Structures are given as structure tokens and as C-alpha cells.
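Duplicate of #3305? Posting structure anyway:
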């Protein structure tokens, strides 16, 4: 199984929308690890802005989980810089 290259992207930097749960209609390679997601398997669509248009690559559950984790830690990092009013 091919290892994804580079560091895990965060939704904050890679995406223009919310991932949506999807059942794979036909075998499609994961947008990150290139592992085939077979028909009927659970996967996620993560909208991506690319040179003016939005594509919806599919991501396997494992990659989506890592991306979500990375996004959470990015958000926590931003939150920790907010020293102002906390309601
Ligand atoms: Zn994957």
C-alpha cells in the first residue's frame, strides 16, 4: 500500500467545504493514499477548489480521519492564540 506523501493536510487549507459521507459507486482511488476504494464502501467527498472549479475527490475513511484530526489540532492552535474575550 502506497504511503501518502507529505504531511497531512487540514481542511482549513485544502478544502472549500465540509466533507460529506458517500458510498462509493465504482472503484475509485483515494485522493490522498491512492488506495482503491471499492464499490459499496464508505468514503468521504472533500470539496477542493482547483484552478477555478471545485472538484470532489473521494477519500478513504482512514485518510479522512487523519485530515479531521489535523484540522482539529489546527483549530485548537488558532483558539489558543485568542487571548481576548472568551464568552
Ligand atoms: Zn486514503
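Output from current build:
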Amino acid at each position: 500500500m502506497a504511503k501518502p506523501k507529505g504531511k497531512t493536510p487540514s481542511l482549513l487549507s485544502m478544502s472549500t467545504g465540509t466533507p460529506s459521507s458517500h458510498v462509493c459507486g465504482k472503484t475509485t482511488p483515494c485522493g490522498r493514499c491512492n488506495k482503491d476504494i471499492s464499490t459499496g464502501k464508505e468514503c468521504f467527498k472533500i470539496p477542493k477548489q482547483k484552478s477555478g472549479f471545485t472538484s470532489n475527490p473521494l477519500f478513504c475513511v482512514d485518510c479522512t480521519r487523519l485530515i479531521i484530526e489535523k484540522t482539529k489540532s489546527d483549530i485548537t492552535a488558532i483558539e489558543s492564540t485568542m487571548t481576548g474575550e472568551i464568552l
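Confirmed duplicate; merging threads. The radius of gyration is 15 Å. The pocket of zinc ion is lined by residues 30, 32-33, 35, 59-60, 62-63 (CB under 6 Å).
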